[in-house]
Amino acid sequence: MSLPIHAVCFDLDDTLYPYARYARAGLDAAADYIETETGGRYHEELRDIYFESGITEGTFGVLVARHDLDNGLVARAVEAFHSSTTPLEPYPETEAVLAELGEAYRLGLITDGRGGHAKLDRLGLTHHFDDVVVTPKIDSSKQDRRVFERMFDSLSVLPWSTVYVGDDPRVDFRVPNAFGMTTVRLRRGRYADIEPPDERSEPDAEIRSLDELPATIDASDDESAASGSEIGGKP
Fold first, then answer.
1. Which co-factors does it depend on (predicted)?
2. pTM
């Protein structure tokens, strides 16, 4: 038998907004810093390394090696990347969906991304959430059950009365599934073509746009049972 949902918890990057915009703003901020330090303009090259070559880890190291720049620039460029204050835009439907869900449920956010609070401010979404956990700030990750336990306590909810919405099947659903949370995958963004690595990482439901989420949560027990998933929660 399903239990009523009392809270909805979200991932941030590529779930509420397109991470590519954050990366583009960060790359430009880092390139501005490198230009100030070296006099060289590498904006387009950094975007090519990141987006065209797909080198999203060690991006600045590649640039430094190519041009025989000071290795000390790497760490400072990373800091500049994450310190950008350029406004970000959520997906077109994000604001309305959060506002709608916020009238019926407590809302939480758990992100492994650095600078989660600043991202929410830049997106103009901070006011929607009752609690926000940015795991790098507590030296943890979404693979740690205690992160979710902290959220349950903060929102005063039980795991099986909570929905978790994320986009990356490699990291987003294993722990919530183990808790008995209802898991919903937004198949969008960087990881849209990636399949779950194992059964424990498979979401209960899948959507292509956030505006499908309210109906997914509200789906009847009969419809959920027919699809092999209880949207209202797991026993």
1. Mg(2+)
2. 0.87
